[in-house]
Amino acid sequence: MSEEMPSYTWDEITPCPRPVEFLERAGVGSAQPCFEYALPYGAEPMDGGVRFRFFSRSAREMRILFYDSPQDLHPSQVVPLYPETNRWGDVWTLFVPERGVGTLYHIQADGPFLPEEGLRFDRTARLIDPYAKALAGPYLFTEDKILVPPKCVVVSDHFDWRGDRHLRYRMADSVIYEMHVRGFTRSESADSVYAGTYRGVAEKIPYLKSLGVTAVELMPVHEFLASDPFTA
Q1: pLDDT over threshold 80, residue 23
Q2: Domains of the chain (ranges, CATH numbers)
Q3: How much is the pTM?
């Protein structure tokens, strides 16, 4: 799928009541009345379940595939999203009860296959949520050679900073030091008891500050497929 993401302001978002009977029809537990909103996108853990929101202007139907393990080839549950009940404009949204942090999922989208218009929908494809904040598991192939990418993971944004506050350096005054955790203190010249570890990096904070460094960027910024010749 190739689609331009929209830009919304909160003033443009109108709460829409979700039909109570939908979850019962989808077979995902007892339904409770609630309201759906367009933002934020992705998976948002809430009391009693997870709210999913996906953007697709051209999809005719969408599904959420849930898995019990990162190594599973096949989903343990498939929950459909219907345009009549789960689509508000170009946003597809659904609250799924009895799901929470750690839930593994993919999405599927059914729609037109018109490559000349940038539309390449494949209803059998397992898709990664573009707003997923974590992935788990390897790339797999089903018996009929359908690619199963790593599973999306529902995560919580809550973190106890224990009183830490952002230093708020202006970008013009920032000096950002890029490093790999292992390589930064691996050399004997680093003279670190905790060589190649996060603790080893922490030992060197006074040294970095003496250089005028204001921020450290740990590389790589995300995991990559080690067997891929383009990223390994």
Answers
A1: no
A2: 10-153 (2.60.40.10), 171-219 (no CATH)
A3: 0.66
